[in-house]
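Input (Multidrug-efflux transporter):
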Amino acid sequence: MVISQGAFAVMVFTDRWFMSQIDSVHIAAAMGGGVASFFCLSLFIGLISYGNALVAQYYGAGMYPRCTRVVSQGVIIATASLPLLAVTAYGMGQAFSHLGHDPRQVPLERIYFYTLMGGGFFHLVKASLATYFVGIGRTRVVMAVDVAGICINVPLSWMLIFGKFGLPELGIVGAATGTVVAQFITILLFLCFYLAREHRHQFSVGESLVFDRGVMRRYLRLGVPSALESFMNNGTFNVFLLLFQGYGVVQGASMAIVFNWDMVSFVPMMGLNIGVMSLIGRFVGAGDMTRANQVIASGFILALGYSGTLAVLFLLFRVELVDVFATDDAQFAEIRVLASAMMIGLTTYMMADAVLLIAGGALRGAGDTRWVMWTSTTLHWAMLLAQYFVIIVWELDPLVSWWVFVAMLLAIAACYWVRLYRGRWRQPERLARVMQE
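Output:
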């Protein structure tokens, strides 16, 4: 799962690096449009992705036919989401011109965003299939499909952005189009594994293609808090990003560069988060909490070791890492100074990311989604309120805003750690309620 999530990081990283070959306005536009599209999808991604824990719980309990019914309910949710996604996409697309962004940036953000949203349904269906295979422990399937997807996406985006091999030169639209095409192809690859004869027989795939009231009820009861958390947190992050980009192109490009390197740390650790959630769900279903403890300990060792190593490297080579995205325009000297300073904040919260991802994965896998939702969203909204005063009311320096964001991540990690350590989430009566349909 680390390799699988790392493939996603490579995809976003290379898209923005290709944009840097054009100019800094394109970097900022790719950041703004990409985050806005993920925000619009985040409610349904958060809900569908909780299928990982549901499948793992059924698998641990030996209820194999229920596993594939989770996939069917996920596709039903994705289909039902289409009208709302269309309305949300239109409204968000019109909002770019009212956020105080550079006039050169707005049309680029909008067209990049619309293209990504055009493939939103593919994103949701892919998430449903991927979380299923993770839930039953076949993570090599997810790795193989995601690596194949990135091998398609990167060269295709390059050809479409710069007009290579007879293809039209589409610029930022080419980056988004390459992503959408690659997502569709990965769905076809997943279906090859899902519809294989041995798998169909073991998990009763043919009988799963129905609406299942009991499975859907569990999906909504446990998944909606996770979905609301994802949606509200992405909403606050998206507004923070858009407010920060209101400082100007220099600040927007600086943030895009720093978050590109953040993905090198954060996204692979999301693979650990997904793995921990799946394994905790499996052992909750099997009633084996001793093994759950071993999963949590192993997750912390891997995540803290990985993020700690990268934090040291990012701190020592922060200027050189920023220069990877150097552009020819005169603004990059200012971008270098600001982004290098922001890299210090990045190295400060990377270890906190490791804690909150492992602890959060364990809590979600055990069905403690309501506590996670309330805690995380409360701190995110407190951060956004502080950002409003820092950026809009008091007009403070961009670095002040950045350190407010860092402080929020440190606070969330501390709260998750305390919840995990106290252990209320593992009480037998709580776990019994989690398994009820």
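The two ends are 29 Å apart (CA to CA).
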